[in-house]
Amino acid sequence: MAACIFCRIIKGEIPCMKLFESDKTFAFLDIGPLSKGHALVIPKYHGAKLADIPDDQLTEILPTLKKLVNATGAVDYNILQNNGTIAHQQVHHVHFHMIPKPNESEGLGISWPASTGDMEKLKALCEDIKSKM
């Protein structure tokens, strides 16, 4: 997809601060970092959402993220991957953020609006999801 900014970065049409590249995976520094070392890891295969990417194109993603964690020396960090506009995805090419969290003010800030689940409804949901996997 020629219009995709990440596909254009992979092709070298748009410069980036490349950290890693293989046949399947590409990693580079985020140009709008939330903290020092904030990087993106993307599959070279274009797909908007995680479910759009073939499993064999995802095999290097977590090992690459782990290498980035070790290379940056991050002790506390977030791995973030959003799917869809209402889930805060801005570039519609699957990408994973590795965001170091060196202190309370730098890195990703999130709130977690948790609720107490109805155990019977959760059990039914669990069985429904398991039956479709």
TrEMBL record:
InterPro entries: Histidine_triad_CS (IPR019808), Histidine_triad_HIT (IPR001310), HIT-like (IPR011146), HIT-like_sf (IPR036265). Residues 5-108 form the HIT domain. Its cofactor is Mg(2+). It comes from the Eukaryota. A motif (Histidine triad motif) lies at residues 93-97. The keyword Thylakoid does not apply. Belongs to the HINT family. This is Adenosine 5'-monophosphoramidase HNT1. The lineage of its organism: Eukaryota, Fungi, Dikarya, Ascomycota, Pezizomycotina.
